[in-house]
Amino acid sequence: MKVPIASIQNKIIEIHEKMLDINLGSNITIVSPIVLTGEMVDDAATDKVHFKGRITAKLSLICVQCLEKFEEALDIGFEETYLPKSENKSDISEKELVEDLDMFIYHGDYIDTAEIVRGILLETIPPYPLCHKCRALDNS
Ligand SMILES: [Zn+2]
Q1: What pTM was computed for the model?
Q2: Range(s) of the domain holding residue 95
Q3: What's the number of domains the chain is made of?
Q4: Among 17-21, 101-105, 131-135, whose mean pLDDT is lowest?
Q5: Ligand 1 center to residue 28 CA distance, Å?
Q6: Cα of 122 to ligand 1 centre, how many Å?
């Protein structure tokens, strides 16, 4: 869903969205719709957008050890701040700004919740996933 920045100004927007068509790469399949709930609020003075919410998802991953598919349920709470891409901050590169403040940049005049969910999921999913069986073996 693309949320226009203009629609957030001076009020809280409730987000409740189900998504199925998010590209997480060829090794990850979405088993049941990803559910995003949360509240988006705009700080009118600075144009920062705060987004606090929760993502639940059931994904099918491929175990790096036994190469079998397994399902993983995720329940991720998040709180992020998004900054508008600004022309008058040309002395600081965008990347530096993001790393320094742990914030994200949005482009244009809307925030795309699908992009946010994709980013958070990719950050959360382990790069070398282990299935429950292999995890148990590893710990014994
Ligand atoms: Zn395994």
Answers
A1: 0.81
A2: 2-139
A3: 1
A4: 101-105
A5: 15
A6: 20
Q: What is the total residue count of the chain?
A: 140
What pLDDT band is residue 109 in, cutting at 50, 70 and 90? confident
pLDDT tens string 32-83: 999 999 999 988 777 788 999 999 999 999 999 999 999 999 999 999 888 8
Q: 27-57 burial, b for 16+ CB within 10 Å, e for fewer?
A: ebebeeebbbebebbbeeeeebbbbebebeb
HEC secondary structure over 76-124: EEEEEEEEECCHHHCCCCHHHHHHHHCCEEECCCEEEHHHHHHHHHHHH
85 CB neighbour count, 10 Å cutoff: 11
